[in-house]
């Protein structure tokens, strides 16, 4: 069965960096696009970033462009999100989500999320 | 970017009733690239509908999606107790892949 397990969240000061990881299993990781979606406390869902199965395409929300970098290691079945210059408004649960195909833009499986809190 | 507006914000119904949730896009969503997700408190979202009307794997047939262009609907034919949750629509026609603000379906 498909499993996505995020890690790396925590409390970080504004302006600092954090790297999230998502360990994938139960499917052929190198055949699917992957995404990060976040949810601020008590708020709705916000798509953050996406990466194609072969890393040739990467897209970002305007709110994180230039600060966040999505990447993947297909040999380790792992997705990453490098978050730099963190702001208070980046506080959220970050979900790793699987694209059902090479690239469709919707999400058929989600991890349980990892909480990132940006606070001094 | 495509803005999605969901209505109503909160829907209060009883088990056994029919629920109709709306999602309106600020511009046409081509190829019906519209999905619906259900989220319960403390849980990750779950895919219900993709392609505006195709049910995801394991989703009961009381859930159905319809619509095209700018107007989409999620219908739950007969509400079960486990259906009371938040529902989000999402367009994946083009980046950024935006979500609606959500509809809370609560027990009346």
Overview of the structural elements:
The complex is a heterodimer of chains A (120) and B (108). With 120 residues, chain A is an all-beta fold. Chain A has no helices and eleven strands. Chain A has strands at 3-7, 10-12, 18-25, 34-39, 45-51, 58-60, 68-73, 78-83, 92-98, 109-110, 114-118. The mean pLDDT of chain A is 97. Chain B is mainly β. Chain B has a six-stranded mixed sheet with strand order 2-9-8-4-5-6, with no helix packed on it. In chain B, strands 1-3-7 form a three-stranded antiparallel sheet, with no helix packed on it. Chain B is globular. At the A-B interface, strand 5 and strand 10 of A face strand 4 and strand 5 of B.
List its salient traits.
A: 120 residues; mainly beta; 11 strands; B: six-stranded mixed beta sheet; three-stranded antiparallel beta sheet; globular
Strand content of chain B: over 45%
Number of strands of chain B: 9
Q: Looking at the structure, what is the overall shape of chain A?
A: globular
Largest sheet of chain B: 6 strands, mixed
Radius of gyration of chain B: 13 Å
> What is the number of helices of chain B?
0
- Main β sheet profile of chain A: 7 strands, mixed
**Helix content bin of chain B:** under 10%
The quaternary organization reads as: heterodimer
Number of helical segments of chain A? 0
Total number of strands of chain A: 11
Order of helices and strands of chain A: EEEEEEEEEEE
**Which segments of chain B are poorly predicted (pLDDT under 50) over 5 or more consecutive residues?**
none
Distance between the termini of chain A: 40 Å
Please state the average pLDDT score of chain B.
Answer: 97
Percentage of residues in DSSP E strands of chain A? over 45%
* Helix fraction of chain A by DSSP (H/I, runs of at least 4): under 10%
What is the structural class of chain A?
mainly beta
Layout: helices, strands, pairs:
The complex is a heterodimer of chains A (120) and B (108).
Chain A: E1 3-7, E2 10-12, E3 18-25, E4 34-39, E5 45-51, E6 58-60, E7 68-73, E8 78-83, E9 92-98, E10 109-110, E11 114-118
Parallel strand pairs in A: 2-11
Antiparallel strand pairs in A: 1-3, 3-8, 4-5, 4-9, 5-6, 7-8, 9-10, 9-11
Chain B: E1 4-7, E2 10-13, E3 19-29, E4 34-39, E5 46-50, E6 54-55, E7 63-76, E8 86-91, E9 103-107
Parallel strand pairs in B: 2-9
Antiparallel strand pairs in B: 1-3, 3-7, 4-5, 4-8, 5-6, 8-9
């Amino acid at each position: 069965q498909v499993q996505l397990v995020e890690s790396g969240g925590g409390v970080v000061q504004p302006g600092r960096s954090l790297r999230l990881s998502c360990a994938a299993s139960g499917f052929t990781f190198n055949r699917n696009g992957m995404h990060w979606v976040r949810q601020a406390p008590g708020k709705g869902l916000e798509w953050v970033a996406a990466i194609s199965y072969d890393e040739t395409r990467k897209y970002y929300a305007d709110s994180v462009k230039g600060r966040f970098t999505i990447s993947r290691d297909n040999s380790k079945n792992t997705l990453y999100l490098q978050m730099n210059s963190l702001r208070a408004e980046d506080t959220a649960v970050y979900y790793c989500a699987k694209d059902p195909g090479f690239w469709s833009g919707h999400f058929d499986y989600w991890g349980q999320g990892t909480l990132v809190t940006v606070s001094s | 970017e495509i803005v999605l507006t969901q209505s109503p914000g909160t829907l209060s119904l009883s088990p056994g009733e029919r629920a109709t949730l709306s999602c309106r896009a600020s511009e046409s969503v081509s190829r019906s690239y519209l999905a619906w997700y259900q989220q319960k408190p403390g849980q990750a979202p779950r895919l219900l509908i993709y392609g505006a009307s195709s049910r995801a794997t394991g989703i009961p047939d009381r859930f159905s999606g319809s619509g095209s262009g700018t107007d989409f609907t999620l219908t739950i034919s007969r509400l079960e107790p486990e259906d009371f949750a938040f529902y989000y629509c999402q367009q994946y026609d083009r980046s950024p892949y935006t979500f609606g603000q959500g509809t809370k379906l609560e027990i009346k």
